[in-house]
Specification:
Number of strands of chain B: 8
Number of domains of chain B: 1
CATH superfamily of chain B: Thiamin diphosphate (ThDP)-binding fold, Pyr/PP domains
Pfam family, one (chain A): Transket_pyr
Order of helices and strands of chain B: HHEHHEHEHEEEHEHEHHH
Structural class of chain A: alpha/beta
GO molecular function (chain A): oxidoreductase activity
Organism (chain A): Marinobacter daqiaonensis
CATH class of the largest domain in chain A: Alpha Beta
Strand order of the largest sheet of chain A: 3-2-4-5-7-6-12
CATH architecture of chain B: 3-Layer(aba) Sandwich
Protein name (chain A): Branched-chain alpha-keto acid dehydrogenase E1 component beta chain
Radius of gyration of chain B: 19 Å
Order of helices and strands of chain A: EHEHHEHEHHEHEHEEEEHEEHEHEHH
Helix content of chain A: 25-40%
Largest sheet of chain B: 6 strands, parallel
Strand order of the largest sheet of chain B: 2-1-3-4-8-7
Largest interface: A-B, 33 and 35 residues
Largest sheet of chain A: 7 strands, mixed
Shape of chain A: globular
CATH architecture of the largest domain in chain A: 3-Layer(aba) Sandwich
Cofactor (chain A): thiamine diphosphate
CATH class of chain B: Alpha Beta
Bound molecules: thiamine diphosphate, magnesium ion
Number of helices of chain A: 13
CATH superfamily of the largest domain in chain A: Thiamin diphosphate (ThDP)-binding fold, Pyr/PP domains
Number of domains of chain A: 2
CATH topology of the largest domain in chain A: Rossmann fold
Oligomer: heterodimer
Chain lengths: ~325, ~300
């Protein structure tokens, strides 16, 4: 085990996979500078700075993936994916199927998003669900350094296009990361980050930590919250979510992305269609609004799910839960 | 000089007061001053992430601009934009996108509306973009359409040698961007973007020609980004020899030297101007810092039009 931050964990995953498989290469705007250690290890053939041209960066990755390479493309900020979308959505996601299974597209995209940097909606847009909606693509959005390492390694070895989203505010978050080069985290497997019995909090990426913080606060009210970190948005680990909902009977889903047609809606539908009988309260979604992220700090932060909002939502579900009073034993004089 | 003072003040505030980072146009002021000097109030401008010089040269109020960077309610966009997408329709700065190449995709539409009677008679549209943006395929789509539809559009490429943290020569097979435009069959020119007189003259010619025949023109302005991509930036990746060469050709110093040589500017006058600008920047900072934060209750205002 080593203590790494998310950025280091990502670079370690890339380093190990490039070492293991000479077909793996990395390209993107400035990657040879931002990931200088990779350039030093593997040289300019396999670590390529590209022009500012997301459409052809992603298209090149798709073409190269179909014919023998395993590219990782760094597209910087998630909103720039819209330029890259044609190759990813229309080609990588569809041409295997439309060719009757002739092609495989083993490629990975990296991009960052999330509130906290006051950069506004052209840099901060949690648009992961758009890609969940696109057939043929897989999507992951981890919350811990270990999961970043393990999931990126698995994504590189997967024969499908995998989009990895990184919340900006996690980049410098540290945690224990296994050193083994065969440390892999499977796609499509959620993590139970905390066990509990009264309510299930489902989330992914940065907001998992906010759910964990809420769970701690809820203890004060005698409420035991289970926290599930989806990690993979597609494939989705339905069983882990359902098992938890059947146990607790209450479900709160938390995401920074806007709510309409998002992951929270999907999880709510899952619970209602497959665990309806277990539900003891209406499902609650805490999501961002249907609005672009503003740059101004106060407006940006006003849209972000907080522990306070989660605690309040859970307490409304469990109105009889009262603050835990620690008994004082009064000694007789 | 106001532009330089404004941006250097902001950079200082960024170091000291946790103000959000900006992409400064320090070193590129002559491009903005020259091109905007050739325009009048009929004309419309589309800019990008590095917009402060364009806005200030167009007459933006430094206080309101700074308030926007700070995310305050008195900013040109009510604090929604921050520094990266500042538009100000009252100044004819109609659209600003920080998506590299975004402005290039919008410009033909703005010019089409102008051509079809939606602007003031004789107005011209100017789109500013960088050498990095020129690498996006949309440049060619935009040029082709503008030529084919005969749109009153001036393309201004500020070739400042840098595309974020990558030098342009690392990403471009050709050394010259204007040659890429040439292939589309429009008049193009490459000029020294650090010489405000030359830029003004070239822009006047191009704008005059567009007004006369309604067809697009293209200017490549050679210049240099003296500060980092985004403040603060340690410039560790920058070729210092090249940088020093360009610093010797600082556009403001060049202009001052020329004016002095021609006897149009005295030292005393210059000091007066400097003092005046210093006061102006003080006022701007005081205004911006005193401006209130936007009201979170109004978060959803402006998502959709009424
Ligand atoms: C589509 C897109 N890709 C990448 C970025 C990140 N980015 C912002 S500015 C910039 C450099 C742009 O270079 P250039 O067009 O030359 O303009 P300059 O910054 O030099 O003025 C980059 C890579 C972006 N904003 N949009
Ligand atoms: Mg540039």
């Amino acid at each position: 085990m080593s203590i790494l931050n998310v950025e280091q964990a990502i670079n370690q995953a890339l380093q190990e996979e490039m070492h293991r498989d000479s077909r793996v290469m990395v390209m993107g705007e400035g990657v040879a500078k931002s990931r200088a250690a990779l350039l030093a290890s593997f040289g300019p053939q396999r670590v390529r700075n590209t022009p500012l041209a997301e459409a052809v960066i992603s298209g090149t990755a798709v073409g190269a993936a179909a014919t023998g390479l395993r590219p990782v493309v760094d597209l910087l900020f998630a909103p720039f994916l819209t330029y890259a979308m044609d190759a990813l959505v229309n080609s990588a996601g569809k041409l295997r199927y439309l060719s009757g299974g002739q092609h495989e597209f083993p490629l990975v995209t990296l991009s960052m998003t999330g509130a906290g940097w006051c950069v506004g909606a052209q840099h901060n847009h949690n648009l992961e669900a758009m890609f969940v909606h696109a057939p043929g693509l897989k999507v992951v959005m981890p919350s811990t350094p270990a999961d970043f390492k393990g999931l990126i390694k698995t994504a590189i070895r997967d024969n499908n296009p995998v989009l990895v989203f990184t919340d900006l505010s996690l980049l410098h978050a540290s945690g224990e990361v296994p050193d083994e080069t065969e440390f892999l985290v499977p796609l499509g497997k959620a993590a139970v980050s905390r066990e509990g019995t009264d309510v299930t909090l489902v989330s992914y990426a940065k907001t998992v930590n906010i759910c964990l913080e809420s769970a701690k606060q809820l203890e004060e009210f005698g409420i035991s919250a289970e926290v599930i970190d989806l990690r993979s948005l597609k494939p989705l680990d339905e069983e882990t979510v359902l098992r938890s909902v059947r146990k607790t009977g209450r479900l709160v889903i938390v995401q920074e992305a806007s709510g309409l047609c998002g992951m929270a809606a999907e999880i709510a539908a899952l619970a209602v269609t497959r665990a309806f009988e277990a539900l003891r309260a209406p499902v609650v979604r805490l999501t961002g609004p249907d609005a672009p992220a503003a740059a101004s700090w106060v407006l940006e932060q006003a849209t972000v799910p907080t522990a306070g909002k989660i605690v309040q939502a859970v307490r409304e579900m469990l109105p009889h839960a009262a603050p835990v009073v620690r008994q004082q034993i009064v000694q007789p004089a | 000089m106001l532009i330089r003072a404004y941006e250097e003040r902001l950079a200082l505030m960024q170091q000291n007061n946790g103000v959000p980072g900006t992409c400064t146009s320090v070193g590129q002021e002559a491009c903005a001053v020259g091109v905007l000097g050739a325009l009048d109030s009929r004309d419309r401008i589309i800019t990008n992430h590095r917009s402060a010089a364009h806005l200030l040269a167009r007459g933006a109020d430094p206080g309101r601009l700074m308030a926007e960077v700070l995310g305050r309610v008195d900013g040109y966009c009510g604090g929604h934009s921050g520094s990266l997408h500042v538009s100000a329709r009252e100044l004819g700065v109609v659209l600003t996108s920080t998506i590299v190449g975004g402005g290039l995709s919008l410009a033909p539409g703005v010019a089409l509306a102008q051509k079809m009677g939606q602007g003031e008679e004789g107005g011209v549209v100017v789109v500013f973009f960088g050498d990095g943006a020129a690498c996006e395929g949309i440049l060619h789509e935009s040029l082709n359409l503008a030529v084919q539809w005969q749109l009153p559009l001036l393309f201004v490429c500020e070739n400042n040698q840098w595309q974020a943290y990558v030098h342009r020569l690392e990403t471009m097979a050709d050394d010259a961007i204007y040659r890429w435009a040439c292939g589309h069959g429009l008049d193009t020119q490459r000029i020294d973007g650090n010489d405000s007189d030359l830029v003004l003259e070239a822009a006047r010619q191009a704008v005059g020609a567009i007004r006369a025949d309604g067809r697009p023109r293209f200017l490549e302005l050679l210049t240099y980004r003296q500060r980092g991509h985004l403040e603060p930036d340690d410039l560790a990746y920058v070729d210092q020899v090249e940088r020093q060469r360009w610093l010797k050709r600082d556009p403001i110093a060049l202009m001052q030297a020329r004016l002095k040589a021609e006897g149009l500017l005295q030292d005393k006058e210059l000091r007066t101007i400097e003092e005046q600008i210093h006061r102006q920047t003080d006022t701007a900072q005081a205004f911006a810092e005193a401006s209130p934060w936007p009201d979170p209750q109004k978060l959803l205002q402006h998502v959709y039009a009424g």
